[in-house]
Amino acid sequence: MWYNVIIMKKKVTKATKNIKNIKSPAFKRVAMKNTTAAADENKTYGFLNDIIFKYVFGSEANKGLLTYLLNALLHLEGPKRLTIDKIMNPFNLAEFTQDKFTLVDVKAKDEAGKRYTIEVQLLSHENFIERAIYYLSKLYTGQLKKNGKFTEIKKTIGISIVDFKLLPEEPAMQNVYRFKNELSMRTLTDSMELQFVELFKFDKDKPKSLRTPLEKWLHILKFGDIYSKEGAKLPKELEAEEGVMEAISVLKKANSNGKMRGIIESREKAEHVIATRMHSAFNNGKNEGKIEGKIEGKIEAAKIMLEIGLSKSEIAVKLGLKETDF
Asked: What's the pTM?
């Protein structure tokens, strides 16, 4: 058994040396994440894995869990609490089998007709905020059917839970954006709302007894993989939060699903390949010594992303290009 460990260690060491040559921080994080994952076949996936997140909170059978999470994120209590009526894009394992890079978010509608789109993201990329605005707008405008009335459009909220530094100038962990008058600061309309929750700003040392429902849920989202391991116990304060124990139970079930684990691992390997090829494409563009080298690198990266099945609109948003550029 000892020789298997030595061989694995050599493979990881070699891969780590290759990663050091990657200059792009975003690509390097993808490569490092997948190299580490390859070395641990018994890895427990947590809620911050986008596929796991969608399985737990985006399955029709689990819409109660999404209800608990959204009430915490939106600070709703008592009669103001919402109830999710329908998952608009329910989890379907087959879609990940056919397309490793399908967009992973959860879209839902509550009993009042309001729409929600929620996602988790571990890695930053260019134009992340523009991308969030784009998908929120699509969900908002998608409500208006042919010959429909504008009065039929319901409030739409987009929530991105990220584990990287997105808004460094904002000290708050949760930031909410709406249409406002810059002079009077009066809200024009609350029909569209965009929220960013930065987990890296979460105070994990705050006494659990003083935490709000939001802080308890964010703790679970960030450290769920630890609590889902065999023998691990939840602190009483977290056990008492409605929905948390059920979410951990569903997380354990997801980790025991061999087919799902295979798809997650396949997706991670594919991300590693893309990160490496895109890094090479960017470098080739820069090494040509042209002013437009970086743009050419992006265009080459876009072509690679087209090859693997991403849509032109999504690629354009990710790379900050026009669809006519590639």
From this structure: 0.76
